[in-house]
Amino acid sequence: MGKMTAFCGLDCEKCDAYIATVNDDEKLREKTAKLWSELNNAPILPEHINCGGCRTNGVKTVYCESICAVRKCALAKGVTTCGECADFENCEILAPILANSPSALKNLRGISAPRDGTSIYQ
User: Residue 41's domain spans which residues?
Assistant: First the structure.
């Protein structure tokens, strides 16, 4: 698992907000803001599309910083990713992401916690 694997197992390096930020790509910011506004029925502007990854220090989208329930839960539990939780495959918070992203599930399975609940990072 790399540093750019999100708490949920998604690959931040493949996210349009991350790509636009790293490349300072204003056209991609505009395209992403338009799409995300439509998908979320919310006013998302190009200047909102800046993110360096959810597990890194630095800028994040408003969603990743303040709204994402997965990130909030992982931070509260003090885990590096959801893969450290023994029951992550049955998590209601994580379920929508895992249902739509086989790669996220694969990433998290690669770092799953032992079934006794101890951290793999001790």
Answer: 12-109
